[in-house]
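Changelog-adjacent note: as of this version, every example in the card shows the full chain rather than a window. The one below runs 510 residues end to end.
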Amino acid sequence: MDRRAFLHRALLASGSTLALPLVGCSTAPSGWGSAPDSRARDLLLPAARRPRRTLEVFLWGGLAPWDTLYAVPAHGRAGGGGAHAGERWMWWAHADETEQRIGACGLELDELLAPFGEDANGELVHLGPFAAPLRARDDIVARLRILVMDHEQFPHQTAVPLTLTGSRLGAPQMAGTAAHIERWVREAEPDRNIPASWVIQPPNPAFRTDNTTTAAAVGRHPGIARPGVLRIGESTRRRVERFARAHLDGRSASFDRAVDAYSAAFEAALTPAGASGPLRSAALDDWRAAQAGLREAPTLAGLLDDALEPGPATSCGESGSLDGTAAGLKAAVRLLTSPVSAARWATVIDGGLIPASHMTGFDTHLDHVRVQARNTLHTLRTLVQLINEPGEDDPDKLDLAQDTVLLTTEFGRSPYPEGDSGLDHWNAGYAVAAFGGWADEARSGVVGAIDVEGRAVDGVRPAELRAALLLAQGIWPFEPEAFATSAVRGVDDRFAAAQRLRQHVLGYGS
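Full-length structure tokens:
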């Protein structure tokens, strides 16, 4: 029994004249993330539009929109007139170098920029050359929904947690989307022991200092919300061996019986005389979840065995000895498509084939074109190979009719050069994307705009995106452990907030 239900029943039992339904409470479904009433249920996406599974690729370091997801040639064009005309601005900041680079990257493009759709300012947005693997797939472009984002955090260390969770660093409720999904699934499927959501970290050692670990944060959730966490690296093989419990030398059954005996003794100590079960204990619940998951570890070992073997790879003529990008994406898709307890959500922190000078994959203060071309193209080429093409029906790949792919990042890169060859951080206006699943053909287009100064117009904040992703899953996002109504701009109540998320972020009408 949760706290709300306990207080409600206590008031009823007391005979108090205050024994009325508590404000904000309902007799609607009581599981975490359930819509509190019929009005809220109508604001969730219809079951037919909810994604079967979601892969989030977090392009760590700051993806530049100008040569990937959001190029407006009129901004800075020499003969176009207006602000910044003729300057090295946005797409034009490194256009000459980009044109020279495409040959080394094996790109065969009729045009460097491909028209995509109008933004909120009526400007025609183009997809850039480093989005070429997406551009080559008409089925992806037909579903592509580009969202303009903005926030106030300039450093990686604070922007990463905000964009991965929707909460600021240090907020008690800060929890990754993976944790929300994990709790929701585990409460609906109490017999499930394999995690329903995963976070996969790159081999780059800087991932801790940049706080990408917050993708697996649980905030105020109980222990059952903890997602599975893997780190790609040279020690991955040893981790798989640990999953198989080889260190028990065939004595795992005896070990489990001993653990069961200690667990039973602990439960007995928490059970009052005559009671049917132990008193509620968060620690005991967490222990049970961990114990059950441990017994499923051999299943994970078989599932991930060869998927976590990073090897060398080459992109744009440069070779990396440890391809954490491919290993992470392949492991995520293996978990999402597993025939046994398939995952519902996976976040892959992409540190790039070869890290940039600041150890992330996309933090291009120096050599922007060379580094972002190499890493972006390698990521997208690897990704599209893991997605079924039209007419293909490979059960080991994602299916855009049912599955959603997200391309996210903590911020973009500046519309002006940093030094001669780089771009700085830019949180005032950048772009992320979704395609497949809920992001279908009817949702394709651009949400918001980036104006000529590089600033977002009618964009989306990180908390709004994260709350909308829960709504798309059929999860009511306005829970104490998730988001407050104030996370959504320009609304007065949670129903108006959900309506804005549904329409503006996800693209669904009332």
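Structural remarks: Residues 51-234+310-453 form a domain with the Alkaline Phosphatase, subunit A fold (CATH 3.40.720.10).
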